[in-house]
Amino acid sequence: MAECGRSAMDYKKAGVDIDAGNEVVRQITGLAKATATRGVLSDLGSFGGLFHLGASGLKDPVLVASADGVGTKLRLAFMSGIHGTIGMDLVNHCVNDILVQGAEPLFFLDYLATGRLDPDVAVQIVDGLARACRDNGCALLGGETAEMPGFYADGEYDVAGFIVGAVERTKVIDGRGIAAGDALVGLPSTGLHTNGYSLARSIAFDRLKLSVHDRVPELGTTVAEALLAPHRSYLPVVRPLLAGARPLVKGMAHITGGGITENLPRVLPAGTEAVVRLDAWNVPPIFQWLERAGGVPREDMLRTFNMGIGLILVVSRDRTAEVVDQIRNAGESGANVIGSIEPGGAGVVYEPRQP
Amino acid sequence: MAECGRSAMDYKKAGVDIDAGNEVVRQITGLAKATATRGVLSDLGSFGGLFHLGASGLKDPVLVASADGVGTKLRLAFMSGIHGTIGMDLVNHCVNDILVQGAEPLFFLDYLATGRLDPDVAVQIVDGLARACRDNGCALLGGETAEMPGFYADGEYDVAGFIVGAVERTKVIDGRGIAAGDALVGLPSTGLHTNGYSLARSIAFDRLKLSVHDRVPELGTTVAEALLAPHRSYLPVVRPLLAGARPLVKGMAHITGGGITENLPRVLPAGTEAVVRLDAWNVPPIFQWLERAGGVPREDMLRTFNMGIGLILVVSRDRTAEVVDQIRNAGESGANVIGSIEPGGAGVVYEPRQP
User: Fold this and answer.
1) Residue of B31, B259, B9 whose CA lies nearest to B126
2) Is the pLDDT of residue A304 over 80?
3) For residues B29 and B36, what is the distance between their CA atoms, to the nearest angstrom?
4) Checking DSSP bridges between strand B348-351 and strand B221-222, what pairing results, if any?
5) How high does pLDDT run on average in chain A?
6) Closest by Cβ to A199, choosing from B9, B141, B152
């Protein structure tokens, strides 16, 4: 009030709007409540979320936990104003990351950070998280919405997810039984999932000078539609393979950053290598388009993108037909044998050999 | 290579350096390994971190989980180049958030996001996380280091933490037994902890035009030293109160964003209010200095900062002396009775009444 004097400062003037934050928390709480499963004991308002492990019915549970983000796929959301699928990307990515060790998801927490909170956008994001949690039978147990003035540009945010699942100790999948002769079964991806976006954006926007709303003839969709296709969860189609006393798969690799080249070796025992037959599946148009338009060497494509294979199962040769059948019965007709485990140094060998 | 032609693009050119990332992961893996507790089953390299719940020895475990960030305290780290204590802030904040429901921490995961990864800074941050995890008997089970070109300014980052703890179902602390007549025991904070930094920075840097390295006579330290004082963990001093068949505390509030005013009501049952006596403890110099220099109304101070009280325990009047004694035996001599629970509307009443 006083000229050239000291005006009172409060938190709101310093850029943090506690009341707007409380309103978002109220809406988010409603969305989260709708995801509650049998184990959930607390409302979101308490300091920590409570989950009663007895509800899982496991005798000797091993908890499997993972943290992840959506990476620069977020920029597609910023450019297109479509924020409703980012939450699905994040939850499904996390679900797959613990699924590969045999775990069913129990609960999920999010961290959403912005410069200045746009309540509509925050609610869209959490709505996506909550829908994906429900689809995966996973409780949205809590989260943090942080307003950090000056950290994020206007209209931008970052979001991280944290998942905890559980698996019976005797049924943890750790790749230990993998041996030469095993088959690799690939499950189709729905697009880039959440990886390779820095390169994809460089190609689409810097090199081709496209806008997100431009149609790409090769794809039959707009750039935004193609690049925002949500990361899928493999839980529904893999769950039946894990149901028996002994899981039908020996190991699984979620194909994320680093592609097949870097992710498949993470489950290979010493003395083995993976031979992947590149002619065993059709690389989807989105990857062909990026490869061609960017002049990206095939080797870099395979080390960056999933190339149409989002999850790889390692299976005994003699159970392969049974596994592919069960996956088909669970609603996925696109499973393919894409290679095998062979004696060798750790790593992935692609056939036919790349020039 | 070709002039005005299409040069090949790869992921590295698009701003993501996988090799530098792998080197950081290698160092981080070493730091995380040193935090392993009895329950940890996996190395950090697998897709998810594995924790064997049987190691906790609990009969009917309830998992308590929380997600949090450090907020704009990070800017102090950016300005001063001191990144080694941010991890302690984050872990200790999370530990306290689940401690208030009676949980011992089991494991922690981090999400660290930057524009371009500075390996030294990343390792400093994770070193702080790992040290705090060790101090709290909590495994650093995994995490995600995300390089997101263009999302964060040079030299900046954001970091989020996720914690999972466990408590015997019969010993969950939920404030249900709280009744009029109970005493409030306050435990001293070590400074601002991780809240109120947007306002504190406005006062120190925008209004007073100080630099982080300036000494503040009222504090006897530099601005950076005062504002980077790490958030403390209350686990060592509260643990003994939870050890018996029935916990010695009825409820606890971690005083974070929103101060005593917003956090204490989160544990109050309907029909009660908290009366907090402001003359029961000495408000530390850092808060007095901010209040005076910013001309901040006392009410806003109490709704923004912890004002020297980082954790409040709600205790039966007749157990108060025993609780204060046990806290003293655990090494904390600064515990004080700071008020009481009274019949009333939900909320906090400060005495003497503020003008």
Assistant:
1) B31
2) yes
3) 11
4) unpaired
5) 91
6) B9
Closest by Cα among B252, B308, B322, B257 to B99: B252
List, for residues B233-242, the tens digit of each pLDDT value.
999 999 999 9
Tens digits of residue pLDDT in B49-65: 899 999 889 999 999 99
Alpha helices for chain A (secondary structure H): 18-33, 73-80, 86-99, 119-135, 197-201, 223-227, 235-238, 259-263, 285-294, 298-304, 320-329
User: B residues 281-300 near A, CB within 8 Å?
Assistant: 294-297, 300
Query: From CA B92, how far away is CA B190, in angstroms rounded?
Result: 12
> Is A63 touching B (CB cutoff 8 A)?
yes
With CB atoms and an 8 Å threshold, state whether B46 touches A174. Answer: yes
Residue B256 has pLDDT above 80, yes or no: yes
Contact, B91 vs B133, CB < 8 A? yes
- Residue with structure tokens 């999948």? A173
Distance CA(A255)–CA(A306), nearest Å, equals: 6
> If pLDDT is split at 50, 70 and 90, which confidence band does B292 have?
very high
Q: CA–CA separation, A325 vs B169, rounded Å?
A: 42
Tokens of B182: 């109970």
Task: Give the residue from B64, B194, B235, B306 with the most A CB atoms within 10 Å of its CB, the best one to mutate.
Answer: B64
Helix/strand/coil (H, E, C) string of A38-89?
CCECCCCCCCCEEEEHHHHCCCCEEEEEEEEECCCHHHHHHHHCCCCCHHHH
A71 touching B (Cβ < 8 Å): yes
SS3 B66: strand
Tokens 């839980």, located at residue? A235
State residue B343's pLDDT score. Answer: 97
Is B199 close to A46, i.e. CB distance below 8 A? no
Of B74, B97, B201, the CB nearest to A48: B97
Q: Give the N- to C-terminal CA distance of chain B in Å, as an integer.
A: 74
Which of B7, B10, B172 to mutate to test binding with chain A, by most A CBs within 10 Å of its CB? Answer: B10
Closest partner CB to A109 (pick from B52, B65, B262): B65
d(CA A280, CA A268): 21
Is 0.90 surpassed by the pTM of this model?
Answer: yes
Decide if pLDDT at A46 tops 90.
no
Helix (H) or strand (E) run with residue B19 in it: helix B18-33
To the nearest whole Å, the CA of B302 is away from the closest chain A CA by 11
Distance from CA of B350 to the nearest CA of A (A): 19
Q: Tell me what the mean pLDDT of segment A283-310 comes to.
A: 97
Taking an 8 Å cut-off on Cβ atoms, the answer to whether A69 and B165 are in contact is no
Is-contact A133 A109, C-beta < 8 A? no
How far apart are alpha carbons B287 and A74 in whole angstroms?
A: 38
CA within 13 Å, CB half, A204: 28
pLDDT over 70, % of chain A: 93
Q: Residue B5: its pLDDT value, please? A: 32
Enter the ipTM.
Answer: 0.92
A176 falls in which pLDDT band (50, 70, 90)? confident
Nearest Cβ partner for B10 among A18, A169, A300: A300
Please report which residue ranges of A167-297 form alpha helices under DSSP H: 197-201, 223-227, 235-238, 259-263, 285-294
Tokens of B160: 């989020």
Report the sign of the C-alpha dihedral through residues B296, B300, B305, B306, in that order.
Answer: positive
Which of A42-51, A203-212, B316-325 shows the lowest per-residue confidence on average (mean pLDDT)? A42-51
